[in-house]
Amino acid sequence: MADLSVNFAGIQSPNPFWLASAPPTNSGYQIMKAFDAGWGGAVWKTLGIPVVNVSSRYGAVNYRNSRMVGFNNIELISDRPLSDNLREIEEVKKRFPHHAVIASLMVGPREEWHQIVRDVENAGADGIELNFGCPHGMCERGMGSAVGQEPKVLKTIVEWVKEVSTVPVITKLTPNITDITQPARAAVAGGTDALSLINTIQSLVGVDIDRFVPYPIVDGKSTNGGYCGPAVKPIALNMTKNCAQDPGVKVPISGIGGIENWRDAVEFILLGAGTVQVCTAVMHFGFGIIREMVAGLSGYMDDKGFATIEDFRGKALDHVLTWENLNMKYKVVAEINEEKCIGCQLCYTACEDGAHQAIKLTPGSRVPHIVEENCVGCNLCSLVCPVESCITMERRDDGSEHLTWSERTMAGNVPLTFDDPLAGGLHHSVPSPTEALSTPVPRHYGLSQN
Ligand SMILES: Cc1cc2nc3c(=O)[nH]c(=O)nc-3n(C[C@H](O)[C@H](O)[C@H](O)COP(=O)(O)O)c2cc1C
Ligand code: SF4
Ligand code: SF4
After folding, report:
1. Is any ligand 1 atom within 6 A of the Cβ of residue 131?
2. Which of 37, 104, 158, 257 is most exposed by smallest CB count within 10 Å?
3. Has residue 449 got a pLDDT over 70?
4. Do 311 and 372 fall within a single domain?
5. What is the pLDDT of residues 275-302, one digit of tens each?
6. Is the CB of 199 under 6 A from ligand 1?
7. Exposed (0-12), middle (13-18) or buried (19+): which is 259, by Cβ within 10 Å?
8. CATH code for the domain of 234
9. Residue 368 phi, psi (nearest 5)
């Protein structure tokens, strides 16, 4: 049976699943309930000078039949008095001494940082997380993402915290920046013990087209909020990878962003995360999702023969290269399984209008066919096909050749002029423009315009 326990920068936790700092960690009541359900740790809702919030506060992107694919909030840090939170941290630690309780903090001046760090340590917090990520409200007051976007300021504040802290310090980064490794390196230079990422992405989730106001609406007006939930996972994975691969960032990483099941967690761990944090999925489905997460992760580790999280942490990192180091001799083409095909012809339209005109309609049949010599192996048809494994990408090279853009560049074998004979698409089939007028346009979109 796999051992799920982790030692994250010196913070012990029975499993790598932590609640992210957010409404689910607003009180000791919720955190104890979550620990009881099986969560390994919790990052307390950010503490500082208590705020006053507005209503409403949340907006969502519902996509087709799925609700809250993306979630957005304009909420600030904790609005509860610090003394109440400190008392509850103490209570939680008394009842759950082996679970990880991390205090998320956000204040302004150095003296306030020193004071609040001492306060939460005295209450028994196992670690501190510095919230340099909130992209709304708090940043207008010079805190949150305003700090996360200024590596020098960020480093200074990490140093202030490290002057007094005796427990591990995690710096939580904002994704609202071009290169996440810059603030990550600054945090490391300031002495942080670990990083967590991502906080929310600055966003507007939509506009009420009758009232002409974006969501969420506060007395007829709105403001930009922070985006999270399943939609942000790809951005979070990439930023986690960027930090994990950076030689200047050799500290543990807590992965956050769109995690809602054990598979999501495994992906973050494979890209270098030592723990994962969850917010939106718990706000949507409740603390109970942890049961499936723990069981699923444990089953995956047993299947793969991983005894501990460390056995597979970062295992995908060696497989992420820069583009110029990919093998250009690797060649796949699409193949349609006629038995599985339901004849919707979505693949035909996608390839015809959005790719390389390599799928043709078959006279007398709903099942289209691939013109292999036209196929560039882009994957688009297999992605739009609604039938699982109906279009597969089949390898056509024999694996004997390996050539990268970087090697071609060094050999002087790359296109350098506008009409260079080395252009990659020179010999690809492209119909003449007038052929467009005789090409059928099937009606099958299934997209409602309501
Ligand atoms: C309503 C709401 C409030 C949040 N409040 C905080 C906060 O006080 N401190 C903080 O560091 N992050 C806060 N976050 C960000 C989350 O901790 C997390 O970084 C983000 O939501 C991405 O994770 P998710 O996709 O699992 O939601 C908040 C997120 C939401 C949705
Ligand atoms: S998208 Fe898939 S199911 Fe639809 S026609 Fe193409 S192969 Fe068949
Ligand atoms: S892989 Fe791309 S080019 Fe090839 S058939 Fe599919 S959509 Fe067309």
Report:
1. yes
2. 37
3. no
4. no
5. 999 999 999 999 999 999 999 999 999 9
6. yes
7. buried
8. 3.20.20.70
9. -75, 170
